[in-house]
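Worked example 3 (structure in, sequence out).
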């Protein structure tokens, strides 16, 4: 099946305060964000026309920019309104939502403090990060060679474009071997996350997940912890070593793109996508469509 390139699609993109036709959304090839990685973004989803935790994402978007030493020239409220407008004008109530901000083309050097900060928001259909049938059976993960860096050497709390370079390389390597994704370790060799999702394990009736100190404490990650709490399931946030992988009963990934995705194997280690994983799939699917004041 052919895929329409993203620069040739139809619709509307919000750019620097106004909606523009999709194919007319542009940046210059000498934009600082392209050459030096001064770019931050968000990944969100709209369900039935409502963006899940839109305000939290908008606030993180602004914090990410601050960590990269620039300020997004729109408030969280303005960003939320622009995202909602994009969803409405593009006519699909169930879409992926991508805000992105970058330094412009006024200065082309490492230091570019006076560059204009540009912001764009695009939305598009993206049913699932993984093949739906494969996802519910449980996906298989490789173990990446690249590691998440020491937080003293990278702005790990920011959703910054440059931090995803090693994720892209790791996912490409995993896919060439026939895996769906790759599990990444941190700079000290401990379990960290996957290339674009956080990871949870189950053992002894509890969830276990790595401490998010060198990678994003994902909004979906925090949602899973809350959903588990409502079910009376505790979550242990701790250091997890690769030697423990064979000791867990279940494993699943979570993120805006992945939503909740059961895992059937990591390298030689095998898991059964069981009751907890499937319950999280169902609870999350309900949560993202729950509206304020609803008990659904």
């Amino acid at each position: 099946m052919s895929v329409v390139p993203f620069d040739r699609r139809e619709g509307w993109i919000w750019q620097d305060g106004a909606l523009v036709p999709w194919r007319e959304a542009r940046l210059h090839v000498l934009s600082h964000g392209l050459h030096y990685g001064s770019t931050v973004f968000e990944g969100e989803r709209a369900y039935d026309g409502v963006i899940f935790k839109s305000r939290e994402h908008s606030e993180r978007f602004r914090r990410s920019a601050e960590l990269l030493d620039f300020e997004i020239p729109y408030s969280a409220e303005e960003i939320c309104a622009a995202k909602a407008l994009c969803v409405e004008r593009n006519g699909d109530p169930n879409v992926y939502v991508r805000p992105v901000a970058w330094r412009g083309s006024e200065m082309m050097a490492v230091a570019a403090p006076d560059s204009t900060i540009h912001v764009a928001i695009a939305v598009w259909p993206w049913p699932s990060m993984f093949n739906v049938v494969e996802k519910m059976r449980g996906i298989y993960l490789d173990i990446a060679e690249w590691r998440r860096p020491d937080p003293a050497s990278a702005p790990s709390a920011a959703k910054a474009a440059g931090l995803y370079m090693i994720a892209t390389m790791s996912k490409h390597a995993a896919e060439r071997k026939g895996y769906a994704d790759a599990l990444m370790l941190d700079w000290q060799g401990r379990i960290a996350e996957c290339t674009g999702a956080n990871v949870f394990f189950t053992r002894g009736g509890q969830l276990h997940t790595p401490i998010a100190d060198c990678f994003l404490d994902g909004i979906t990650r925090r949602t899973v912890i809350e959903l588990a709490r409502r079910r009376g399931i505790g979550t242990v946030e701790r250091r997890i070593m690769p030697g423990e992988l064979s000791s867990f009963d279940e494993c699943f990934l979570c993120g805006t793109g992945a939503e909740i995705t059961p895992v059937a194997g990591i390298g030689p280690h095998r898991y059964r996508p069981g009751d907890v994983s499937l319950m999280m799939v169902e609870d999350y699917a309900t949560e993202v469509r729950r509206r304020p004041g609803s008990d659904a």
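Notes: The chain has two domains: 6-124, 132-287. The longest strand covers residues 139-148.
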